[in-house]
Amino acid sequence: MRARRIGLLGGSFNPAHGGHRRISLFAAETLGLDEVWWLVSPGNPLKPRAGMAPLAARVKSAIRQARRAPIRVTAIERELGTRYTVDTLRALIRRYPDREFVWLMGADNLAQFHQWKDWRGIARAMPIAVIARPGYDGAAFASPAMAWLRRHRVEAAEFRNRGDWSAPSLVTLRFDPDPRSATAIRRADPEWAGRYSQVPPRDQLTFRRIVPISRGERVQAP
Predict the structure, then answer these.
(1) Do 74 and 205 meet the contact criterion of CB atoms below 8 Å apart?
(2) How far apart (Å, rounded) are the C-alpha atoms in residues 203 and 103?
(3) Is-contact 30 195, C-beta < 8 A?
(4) Is the pLDDT confidence value at 215 over 50?
(5) Which of 22, 90, 116, 185 lies 20 to 30 A from 195 at CA?
(6) Where do the Cytidyltransferase-like domain residues begin and end (predicted)?
(7) β-bridge partners, 103
(8) Which sequence spans correspond to the domains of the chain?
């Protein structure tokens, strides 16, 4: 039997919305994934901390969006104690050796991927699937990271049918643009996090309650 295939989608999810769900389900169907794990980041230094809702509220919003779908919501990065994405992914590979992972990212992240710590290490750790995002494709495909990754491009159908995944591999996915964004939701509803401030949520991967850290939540770097 082949290993279970998992897509990893990282982000602030501030808040999670239907666009996250839609791209996750699209990627799962196109790539033949068994599940998608949403890695809700404790924090991201490339984004302003002002306006960042507490981790528990962001996780609860993600759980709500992921219901009745093959999506698990987790804040496991806080438990792993990893600061950088490359370290998180390596830790997940060690912790779940019976899974095959693919890193999912939007074209906006590909545009700045070369600024991430050891981004080539990320590409060598697992395949990467890039999902088109309106307004970012030009910068993404002209980026320094794409210049290196281009030689490793694989068609989605070929990737899905591979018996064993290998890295580096790059798959580009296109589907109808989704106009929803967390920024627009926050502007329209600045108090959204208050609706998720009751019982701390349970992590869907570790099954632990996500409670605030007394000295502030650790910052997660790309």
Answers:
(1) yes
(2) 20
(3) no
(4) no
(5) 22
(6) 8-187
(7) 8, 128
(8) 4-196
Cα dihedral 213, 215, 218, 219, rounded to 10, equals 140
* Per-residue model confidence as pLDDT tens digits over 4-24: 999 999 999 999 999 999 999
3-state secondary structure the chain: CCCEEEEEEEECCCCCCHHHHHHHHHHHHHHCCCEEEEEECCCCCCCCCCCCCCHHHHHHHHHHHHCCCCEEEECHHHHHCCCEHHHHHHHHHHHCCCEEEEEEEEHHHHHCHHHCCCHHHHHHHCCEEEECCCCCHHHHHCCHHHHHHHHHECCHHHHHHCCCCCCCCEEEECCCCCCCCHHHHHHHCCCHHHHHCCCCCECCCCCCECCCCCCCCCCCEC
- The confidence score (pLDDT) of residue 15 equals 96
Tens of pLDDT, residues 73-132: 999 999 999 989 999 999 999 999 999 999 999 998 999 999 999 999 999 999 999 998
Cβ(105)–Cβ(128) below 8 Å: yes
Q: pTM of the full predicted structure?
A: 0.92
pLDDT of residue 198: 77
Report whether CATH 3.20.20.70 matches the domain 4-196: no
